[in-house]
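job 3f2a | input accepted
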Amino acid sequence: MSQSKTLFSRYYLDHRLSEQPEWSEDVLPTLEKLRELWKKAARFGDKWNEAQTEREFIQPILEIMGWSLIVQPTAGKGARVTRPDYALFADEASKQEAYPFQGDDDAFYLRALVIGEAKHWGRPLSQKDTSGRATWKAESNPSHQMVSYLVGTRTEWGILTNGMVWRLYSREVSSTASEYYEIDLGELFYFLPEGIPPSQEQIDLFKRWWLFFRKAAFTRRDEARPFVQRVHEGSTTYAHEISDKLKELVFEEVMPEIAAGFVAYRHEQMGITEETPEALQEIYRGSLSLLYKLLFLLYAEARGLLPMDNQDYRANSLTEMARWAAE
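job 3f2a | predicted structure (327 res):
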């Protein structure tokens, strides 16, 4: 299943993505091409170093995706900042035009649509590597590395992958390192035995990977804005709509309920029959305090910042309480 850390709205991906014209494309021929590459990776990937993972798996996939690529672009003389593994171009003409500008980042990366960074097979993408197979800076965090590359090259989009997991990053978000769109191809191919046709769910998972990471996702289609731009803008619009609706619900429905609970408690348990203006102000402040605590917990549980995968915690979580109350 795809994972989105706020780069795209989960609701938009689940309910609106299929409205895009690209969703109707037949991806089965491409899926079968990747299934052949995956066979080799499944056998040898655990032994591959970074260069072997790139040569045997990632570069062939980038070419299937339609990318024209320059590997290990040259940084300027004396530059202390390293550059990403790949500069990805829309076509060979753009690639050839960029070649003479290596070392001049502004001119070179202006011609690239996306930058790419590859790690060895299965390497963690948000923490240091302990496998011993990292060829450079095993202690580094690839996600933070991608942020540095996006800022340094001023490229809008970046792809980070270890072969199995693919992440799409954007420079135009508030928290580049933690906001990304992720697809784990292992969730598809490890459960797709040879000779067995994929289920519709598996096809849809592959389609999400294919539509977001191929070259066509970043180029115009029949004068329409690029696919990733349309999805990002649609997600942002939806998020604003949800925010406005949440404000309306909070201050028109939730706050009065909380405040009424305080008033009812004071009446029934403390014998207070009439509230003074000062007491109403105190109730208002207490209602806000409780409301923000509830919202904080719900947010933290939804984002996995609290241990929702722990059965004991989940059973007593605010999310479960809310679900119980709703039922």
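job 3f2a | The longest helix spans residues 227-270.
job 3f2a | closed
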